[in-house]
Specification:
alpha+beta, 351 residues, conserved putative lor/sdh protein from methanococcus maripaludis s2 fold, 5 helices, six-stranded antiparallel barrel, Elongation Factor Tu (Ef-tu), domain 3, rod-shaped, 4 domains
């Protein structure tokens, strides 16, 4: 009778439940065991801190000479001599070329002789007039002749001066394009002359940045010809109009160029500094966009990833400003985000 009461259905159920509890405690399911033994996701972190944020505008510009001119002939004749070589540094007023001027010289000498003779005749008539030996009309006619010859001489001297070509300003000449003995006509180019110290650069800035522009504002220029080198300059003028097609404003800056490294025609990358602020900055790769929101993963004290929504501000290549959601001193996961989920353990890797 006692044995029957021990093996009743209620006892059997209790024993089975106890056995199952012992089994699952001693031998957990495979998924739970894997999760318990799963190593942390390897990540790299960065401490959020306040840094200097340089708000800049970028553009492209073309270098131009401060002064530039094509050296040409003013009259048609044969080149007698050239007094420069390609690439020479030239001073203002320096003689560059001479054309054959024998006819012009002879014409000037002839007019000088005629003018001297006419002046002597004028003086003689003046003396005769004082003695009433010549009429006033004769004296006036001779004065007219003197004036005519004087004017002709000035024209001849101007024509003779055109047979010599001088540098209008100091600078550097380009490639020589003519040779002695060549017949040249007005407009034929001998060479070019450029003043490249300082050098100008013209570039365009979008209309939305117009209020940030000011004369004497500092710019930084870079050229592919000199990797890693910066050329500092300042804005010298701002166009008075906005281009209605591109909605941009043309800006001109000047760059010191004592070493003559920059040359007209160079393509320059322009960086215009708008402001310098203090902001909380993080690498852009730390952001995880989900629909229209942005998130980062903070590292919790127990070594887990905590997904946190943030508000972003200004951007520049590779860096973003965080305005809400992160405080200075927070440790932010910046690498290894692909396998992260909220609450998973992580393993912080060294540099």
């Amino acid at each position: 009778m006692a044995n029957r009461s021990w093996f009743n259905p209620l006892t059997v159920i209790v024993v089975v439940l106890i056995g199952l509890a012992v089994y699952f405690f001693a031998f957990p399911p495979e998924e739970q065991a894997q999760q318990r033994d799963q190593p942390g996701v390897p990540v790299r972190t960065q401490i959020a801190e306040i840094s200097e944020f340089r708000d800049v505008i970028n553009g492209l510009g073309t270098a131009q000479a401060n002064e530039t001119v094509a050296i040409t002939a003013q009259t048609q004749d044969v080149i007698e001599a050239l007094h420069f070589s390609s690439g020479d540094s030239i001073e203002k007023g320096q003689l560059l070329a001479e054309l054959n001027a024998r006819k012009e010289i002879a014409r000037v000498e002839q007019l000088e002789f005629s003018l001297e003779e006419a002046k002597r005749q004028l003086d003689r008539l003046g003396e005769l007039r004082r003695g009433n030996a010549a009429s006033q009309q004769q004296l006036e006619q001779q004065q007219v002749e003197v004036n005519r010859l004087q004017a002709d001489l000035e024209v001849a001297e101007a024509t003779l001066a055109e047979m010599k070509v001088y540098a209008p300003f100091s600078g550097r000449v380009g490639i020589r394009q003519v040779s002695p003995g060549a017949l040249v006509s007005p407009g034929d180019v001998f060479t070019t002359l450029d003043d490249i110290s300082p050098i100008k650069v013209d570039f365009s800035i979008p209309e939305r940045y117009f209020a940030s522009l000011a004369v004497n504002q500092e710019i930084i220029a870079k050229s592919r010809a000199y990797p890693g080198q910066q050329f500092l300059g300042r804005i010298s003028s701002i166009d008075s109009r906005i281009d209605p097609v591109t909605r941009s404003v043309r800006v001109r800056a000047q760059l010191p160029n004592e070493d003559n490294l920059l040359r007209p025609g160079m393509l320059l990358q322009i960086t215009l500094l708008r402001s310098i602020d203090q902001a909380l900055l993080l690498p852009e790769k730390a952001l995880m966009p989900i629909q229209s929101r942005q998130y980062v993963f903070k590292l919790t004290p127990d070594g887990r990833a905590q997904q946190t929504e943030v508000t972003i501000g200004r951007r520049k290549p590779g860096v973003v400003e965080i305005t809400q959601g992160v405080e200075p001193g927070d440790e932010i996961i910046v690498e290894g985000l692909v396998r992260l989920r909220d609450g998973v353990p992580v393993n912080v890797q060294g540099e």
